[in-house]
Structure formats: structure tokens, C-alpha cells
């Protein structure tokens, strides 16, 4: 997406690239965490490095939520003609920058205080470190509200599209609205379950090594769910992926195949729903 001329100048796709970056970073973090779990001697011998790795993974997780919110708000503003699809409003730029600074600050503080550690098959805050409890609360009060705002915004997009179709007398709910509703609902329930259980399991008397392991596996699968949903529900994304994968074959067989069929030029607004 970052190399696609049709996409790279769109602010919505730039935000998606930021989201994909933190998603990819989390995937690499899980690989590193797996290696540290398999070889516990390594994490004991290089504990400061192991803690920096856990802090980095957690910071990437936190950074995901402001990006999600800004992206969803930018989409609905474009839909209701309150913003240009080619320019991100200044307010959203500021909010995105605040989210980045907040996440970077948590990462720097975590690296300095070493406030996260590996426990069993997952990670936990080390509340013996200065400020760890404050950071945990800050994470809760940032992530969950951002997730709720994102979900409500996508529901508003679905309702707006349906009302517009009703006014134009086009009939019932179509495939894009259904896909957006299913995608946003699934991700909202999946991510909110991780957040709520992570921060409340101990007070509810549900915390155990099994709970920690289950949450860790749910977190591991999260980056892949996003990609799978995009491939399943987003026709534009599938076509771009096919174009990228088979680009060399198309160049080699150009004389035989003729001019490739031009891909449909969809608005970046519908990256998650267009079919």
C-alpha cells in the first residue's frame, strides 16, 4: 500500500499504513516473546533487554487505538461531506500526533523503569516499579474509550449509508453495510474482551496462569484477524494484493496478455467495506 501511487497520497491510507505498521510490529514482538519463553535462560540472563522487548510490544498495542479512532472519524467526516478525502483535518492531525506522543512517552518510561515483565506465557506489569500502576490505568483510560469511539463511528457510517439509500429509495441493506457492521462488531468484541479481562480479571477473582495464557494467545492472533478480514471483505485490498504479487508475471507476459485491466478506483473511505 505504501508504494501504490493510487493510495499513498490519501490521508486515510496513510493512517492505515500507520495501523499496519503497529500491527506488523506486534507480530514481530510476539515472535521475540516466543523465543524468550522457549529459552527462559535468555530472558533471565538479559532481563533488561527482555523487558524492553515487552515494553515495546505493549506500546505498539497502545499506539493502535488512537490511530483506529482518528481513521474512523476521518472516514465519517468524508462520508458526510465535512472533510476532503484528500486532506486530513487539522484537529485529527493534532489528535493523531497526541496519540503518537503518548504512546512514545509510555515506551520511553517503560524502558527507563522496566515496568513490564514476562510471566509464564504472557506479560504483566511489575507494580514494584515506580509509576507502573499509573501507566496501567492510563492504558485502560486510553484504549477502551478509543475502541468505543471507533465502533460507534463505524455504526454511524452504516446507519448513514442506509439512511441515504432509503432516501434514494434503493431498498434494503446492501453488502458493504453488512460487511462493515460484521467487521467492526467482531473486532470490537474481540479487542474489548482482551482489554476488559486483562484489566479486571484479578479483581474479579479470575486471574490465573490459564487466563494469562488465553489472553496472550488472543493478542497473538489479533494482527492476523485484521489481515484476514481485509482479504475476506475488501475487494479493493484483494485486487491490490494480487496486483502486487503478480506484478512481475504481468510485466513478463505483457506481450501475451495485452494491456492489463485497470483496477477500479474506489474512494479510500471504503477501504474496509467496498466490494
From TrEMBL:
Methyltransferase found in the keyword field: no
InterPro entries the UniProt entry points to: 7TM_GPCR_serpentine_rcpt_Srt
Keywords in alphabetical order: Membrane, Transmembrane, Transmembrane helix
TM ranges: 21-41, 61-80, 130-159, 180-201, 213-233
UniProt KW Electron transport keyword: no
This protein's name: G-protein coupled receptors family 1 profile domain-containing protein
Source organism (scientific name): Ancylostoma ceylanicum
Gene: Acey_s0479.g2212
